[in-house]
Structures are given as C-alpha cells and as structure tokens.
Amino acid sequence: MTEPRVLISREQIAYRVAAIGADITRDFAGESIIFVGVLKGAAIFLSDLSRQVHLDASFDFIGVSSYGNRPSPAQELKNGWDSTGEVRLLKDVDQPMRGKNIILVEDILDTGLTLTFLKKMFLAHQPKALKIAALLDKPSRRKQPIKGDYIGFQIPDEFVVGYGLDYAERYRNLPDICVLPRENG
Ligand code: IMP
Ligand code: MG
To answer: Any idea what the CATH number is for the domain that residue 28 is in?
Structure first.
C-alpha cells in the first residue's frame, strides 16, 4: 500500500478546532455541557476541542459498531460501501442525559447512519440541547439527511486516516489528516 499523503495539516486542524471551540463557548455561555465522544475515532478531536471550550464541562463516551454490515476495511477502502447497514451500541454513556446540554463528538460524518442512530437515541433521553460536532464531513456520501452543527472540514469522497481516524485500527496517531490511496502502488 502506498504511503498516506497529507490532506489537512495539523496547523489547519488546530486553527479550525479553536474556531469551533470559540463557537461552542459562545453558543452555550453560562451553561454546563457534556461532551459525548464516539469511540474510538473521536478521542483526539474531543481532547483538543474540549480544551478550546471555556465552560463547565464533563466527558462521556459511547461505543458503536457498524462492522456487522460494512464490508471489510480493505473492501471499504477500495469500493466504498452502500449497504443500508445498522448500527449497534457497544457501550452506553455513564451518566443521565435528561435536561443536559449534549455535544456529540464524532470524527467524520460519512453516510450519516451512525449519527442518525445516535441522535435518535439521545433525543429519547430528552436532553436540554443536543448538538453534533464532527471534525470531517463527506456530504457526497450521505444516505441519511443529517447535518452537523459544528463541522471542521468538508472533504471529497476519499478514505482518510490520522487524527483519530483509522484504517483497520492503524494510523490513528498520525498528527495530520491523510488520504489513504485507494489504488495499490
Ligand atoms: P457513517 O455512519 O457512515 O456516517 O460513518 C461513520 C464512521 O465510519 C466514522 O465514525 C468512521 O469510523 C468511519 N469512516 C467513515 N469514513 C471514514 C474514512 O474516510 N476514514 C476512516 N473512517 C471512516
Ligand atoms: Mg472507524
């Protein structure tokens, strides 16, 4: 496989994350919030974003899986995927969400299936507010009509890794967001 090439540099990421943090700080002025990260891809984005938000805040994490319905990572990289796949909850939040301001933090909005599932689930808990922060957005891939409230970057239909995003669990620790070429060689 060829080497990942940088699509969005660490400096560009830091600049956007600071801007989103300022937006959240302004939008929720005087309120407390809970950052709910979607494991594992959102871990790095959540840790950077939360330090740019100057409000009373706590963390929680959820785990989901769509691999039962997705092709293997290699197939997904090569051909994308267009199943209407279901999402399974692997780990729920630890604290009650009712009446709270929730910021769902996700690495990327791709087909939208994951966040559509999670949004519905969280709304059933009757939070005071529910917002979606996604570092990346691939609007051309959407299968569900869902939009993020805070988006870092819109990107074309490329498979990306780094800054939390993986290919078969690798590359999450790359500091930049990189494209993993679909063609070998
Ligand atoms: P969705 O449910 O299709 O919106 O997909 C969301 C999940 O798919 C993300 O949380 C990622 O784990 C994964 N994903 C989608 N696109 C990419 C990509 O380009 N690189 C790595 N993971 C991706
Ligand atoms: Mg992933």
So the answer is: 3.40.50.2020
* Exposure of 91 in the CB half-sphere (CA atoms within 13 A): 10
**Could you tell me if residue 152 is inside a domain?**
yes
From 1-5, 15-19, 83-87, the region with the lowest mean pLDDT:
83-87
Give the per-residue pLDDT at 84: 55
Q: Which residue has the tokens 């267009």?
A: 82
Q: Which ligand is nearest to the CA of 107?
A: 1
Residue 120 is assigned to a structural domain of this protein: yes
Number of domains in the chain: 1
**Of 110, 137, 149, 166, which is the active-site residue?**
110
Other C-beta atoms closer than 10 Å to the C-beta of 181 total 15
The alpha carbon of 130 and the centre of ligand 2 are apart by a number of angstroms equal to 23
Instruction: Name the residue with tokens 């801007």.
Output: 19
Does 166 qualify as catalytic in the annotation?
Answer: no
State residue 1's pLDDT score: 61
Percent of the chain with pLDDT over 70: 88
- As a whole number of angstroms, the distance between CA 107 and CA 56 comes to 23
> Is 122's C-beta closer than 6 angstroms to any atom of ligand 1?
no
Range of the domain at 112: 11-65+88-157
Tell me whether residue 71 is in a domain.
no
Q: Which ligand is nearest to the CA of 167?
A: 1
Confidence of residue 144 (pLDDT cuts 50, 70, 90): confident
